[in-house]
Automatic annotation (TrEMBL):
Subcellular localization: Nucleus
Protein name, as recorded: BHLH domain-containing protein
Organism (species): Brassica rapa subsp. trilocularis
Primary localization class, coarse: nucleus
Top-level taxon of origin: Eukaryota
Stretches for region Disordered: 1-23
Originating gene: A01p002830.1_BraROA
InterPro entries given in the database record: bHLH11/121, bHLH_dom, bHLH_IRO3, HLH_DNA-bd_sf
Domain BHLH, residue spans: 42-92
Gene3D superfamilies assigned: Helix-loop-helix DNA-binding domain
UniProt xrefs under Pfam families: bHLH_IRO3 (PF23177)
SMART domains associated with the record: HLH (SM00353)
Amino acid sequence: MEQLKKLKTSSDESSTASSSWGHNISFKREKMVEVKEEPVSSRKIQKAEREKIRRDKLKEQFLELGDALDPNRPKSDKTSIIIDTIQILKDLMTQVDRLKAEYVALSEESREVDD
């Protein structure tokens, strides 16, 4: 449903009249112009388009993350990608701690052999 809005605009035509006291009074003619108003403002449309672009980009990044974890994964929904990513990160952090401990042990062993 289109909404119509009427606006007053001044025209360039003006007329001058003299009052009974000898003063000149200037009058401008005004005309009514109909302006069609959009039902949804362009700002809302732009915001919706930006939000769609943001969601699409986020979806692509989730799929890319899922492919990086396992290209042949059966599930590629966001929840399973996040759960798998968390588990892999926990496993990697455990492995890093284990390797650090192994490095310390080997460094001590190396010092003992050198002495």
